[in-house]
Amino acid sequence: MSFREKSAWxxxxxxLICFGAYFGSIVAGVVPHRGPQAFALLAICVAAFLALQIxxxxxxxxxxxxxxxxAKDEREQLIAARSHSLGYYVLATLVVALGVPFHLGHPAxxxxxxxxxxxxxxxxxxxxxxxxxxxxxx
Length: 138
Known about the structure:
The protein is 80% helix and 0% strand. It is an all-alpha fold. The protein has one domain (3-136). 13% of the residues are buried.
């Protein structure tokens, strides 16, 4: 497994863990979806996400031979371009869909959570697309 594929796996897993915990707590009603408790949980989840990303990518870099961490070849550049393009389309579609909860009467704080969810889903789409393309030998 190449370093960039490991990095894509790390991205997907850390997004699912950290933001899954945040949105799971909100949906389950453990934390109210507005107010200081939700903001504190979000801050903790973002800090955990950053710490996990930095730590796991550093560990992946240390366990990957230097030859595999060299500059991106044409295939890896194509995978990065296509996956980010897909992520952009996912994000654009979900941002347009933000009008739905607005018209259903959700307050602004809920719309911010929906916008954050849009960004998280788009980032997850990028990581999953990279994993699929690396596995297919694209």
